Each structure stands twice: as C-alpha cells, then as structure tokens.
Amino acid sequence: MYQIVVKPSAKRELKKLSVSVATLIVNKIDTLANNPRPEGCKKLVNNKEELWRVRVGDYRILYAIDDTIRIVDIHHVGNRREIYK
Q: Which residues lie across from 5 on neighbouring strands?
C-alpha cells in the first residue's frame, strides 16, 4: 500500500472545484494508494518531474510515484484544458 501525499497547491486547486467533481477526484486519489498505475494512466513525456496522469472525466490528476519509499505525491488537479500549462 502506498502513502498518498497531496501538495498544498493541489489542495488549493481541489478546493476550487465543485463538491461533486471534488468527491470523484478524492475517490480516485484514494484508489491510487492500492494501485498507483491503474488502467488508463499515462506517464507524461518531456517532463523532468516524471509525472503520471489519470483521468476523471474532464479533469486530470498529475502525480509522481516513488516506489522505493512507496509514496504517491499528488502535484496538480484540474481541468484538462488548463492542467498542462
């Protein structure tokens, strides 16, 4: 089981979302503790932080995985139009 760590910037982004969308995203984040590479996840290319992304409707969760200490570090949460900027 992996430990979930949410950066303060991701918490702020999550608070800006509607309650229904935020609930879906939090549920998806919770599932990353058991399987940090679920079906449909992708590793982002040309990214020095080696981030992964998972989709939740029109929203994306960007996160890093550290397998040695078993941590999933949530970096960003947001709409797909704005998240990659």
A: 73
Q: What DSSP string runs through 46-72?
A: S-TT--EEEEETTEEEEEEEETTTTEE
C-alpha distances in Å from residue 26, one per residue of 44, 45, 48 = 21, 25, 26
Residue 71 lies in a domain: yes
List, for residues 31-76, the tens digit of each pLDDT value.
999 999 999 999 999 878 899 999 999 999 999 999 999 999 999 9
CATH code (residue 65): 3.30.2310.20
Q: How many other C-beta atoms are found inside a 10 Å radius of the C-beta of residue 34? A: 9
Per-residue model confidence (pLDDT) at position 16: 95
Is-contact 63 51, C-beta < 8 A?
Answer: yes
**pTM of this structure:** 0.92
